Amino acid sequence: MREAWRRMSRRAALTRLRLTRHTMRVPERLIVAPTDLRSVDPFFVEELLNGRILLAGRVLETQGASPFSLELPSLAFAARLHNFRWLRHLRAEKSDQASAMARSILTDWIAVHGRRLHGLAWSPDIAAQRLVALLSHSPVLLQGTDSGFYRRFMRMLVFHVRFLRRIVASSPDGVTRFRVRIALAMASVAMPSSSLTLKRAGQALDREIDRQILQDGGHISRNPRASLELLLDLLPLRQTYVNLGHDVPVRLIPGIDRMYPALRFFRHQDGDLALFNGATSTLANELMSVLRYDETAGQAFKALPHTKYHRLAAGQAVVIVDAGAAASTDLSRTAHAGCLSFEMSSGKTRFIINSGAPEFAGDRFMQAARATAAHSTVTLNDTSSCQFSKSKSLGPIMVGGVKKVIVERAETEDGRDYVRAAHDGYLSAFGYVHEREISLNASGTIVAGRDRFFTPEGKKHQPKGEGIASARFHIHPSISLLQTETDAALLIAPDGETWVFSSPGNEVLVAEDIFFADPSGMRSSDQLEIVFKITEKPEIRWFLSHRP
How far is CA 397 from the centre of its chain? Predict the structure, then answer.
């Protein structure tokens, strides 16, 4: 019902926009070009000038033709081409030739997609990213241009603003809607605007910050990378307000300050972010460009109670545990079925990970990455703890699974810090609750785990299915894995640091795996697996022990 309302609202808004597009008042000039904190690749410009476009791990040979007249290599390539964020790479060249090439591509885009208002090019997320990119990199586009292109460029910016204003309320919740609000606020300060327009854009952004940034600083999507993506746009926006002497939206600075501790919470010892709920690889220079502005320096929190994650840290070891479910059906579009999964790092190395989300892959791999089996947790009867819709109209929302997660956090008398949590994702289908306990000793040298399945008291839920459970522990591709006993294996880091994984009384299997979130694309890796039958063994214990 909500999706149908969204489509109807958008169609009505676009109809009004088409009818009024010729009444737009177009300003003569831009006021400022906001900064872009994302990394720059000079090689991209070199290839672009040679007729090759490199995006999303693919190459498009244009041979002098417009890229929009050619078949694009992939959906991810098309998304990155349409969002025009690649303009940032031209900052490394700053030549008239590069600027002319960028203007030519933009002119072709306007001719092919400027009036269609549908498809990928005009999806809310892509349109918002494009508006911010065009504003930020206007100096590159406008270098050496004539008044005619400048006027067409300004007209296009105004049209983007009107488009986004009309579709923001019906855009998908979460990062997409946040991006639209950021783009509108950015346009209100970068383009000539009335004081009322500035105020309204700032107030709308404030409401989105209040709604989407939780009290513990996490984002409502529960994706650790979402905060990084948003900060890459929020920080330049804040600075633009300050530089121009405008009143900064009331919630903007407190919101940014609240996000930093949560970002540090998800940071592993190697500097990368944990791979939960859609997170993929993080470029170190982008993360550092954001952390450079962190004025809230301090120790990472032990828990994010609103975002529903827990962190155990001692010595050189860090363990991060997912102890929550998707906040809403709408926000479950990118959520993963990884409840009670964990990641573990030590020193400068990640040892146990989740498989992460592929950045450039197609739908088949995206859905595989969302499955419980792609996470370091337990799968029952080869079934994910959450189910996903396959309806094209509804989109890939969660339609069943984890609804309730009960969590206990405490310390034992001997100084161990532990998390005990249980979820009901298998209760309806199979009659079982999965409970996991993970503890870390005071010196950070032993991670102890326990997984068990039980049927709640009462006759409402009866055990069903074969009751075959598979506990998976995904190993980072940089780790060398050596099985020493049937119930144990060595995990050896590139710098020689070694941990022993063991599960007394159980067979530990070494299996092939896929790491979805590698910066270079999907790559092979290994996983450890313990298979057990609940009716015979409802509980298993496992350990990760540091070897000096």
Answer: 16
pLDDT digits (tens, 9 = 90+) for 386-432: 998 887 777 788 888 899 999 999 998 888 999 999 999 999 999 99
Query: 474: how many CB neighbours lie within 10 A of its CB?
Result: 27
Query: Tokens for 206?
Result: 């404030």
Amino acid in position 461: H
With contact defined as beta carbons under 8 Å apart, do 544 and 447 qualify? yes
pTM for this predicted structure: 0.92
Nearby residues of 242 by Cβ (< 8 Å), 6 or more positions away: 248
Integer Cα distance of 353 and 478 in angstroms: 11
- Are the C-beta atoms of 120 and 75 separated by less than 8 Å? yes
Rg (C-alpha) for the chain, rounded Å, is 25
Q: Is 468 exposed, middle or buried (0-12, 13-18, 19+ CB in 10 A)?
A: middle
Q: What does the chain come to in residues? A: 548
Cα 133-135-136 angle, rounded to 5 deg:
65
The bridge status of strand 317-322 relative to strand 342-346 is antiparallel
Please state the φ and ψ torsions of residue 265, each to the nearest 5 degrees: -55, -40
Q: What are 29-74's pLDDT values in tens digits?
A: 899 999 999 989 999 999 999 999 999 889 999 988 999 999 999 9
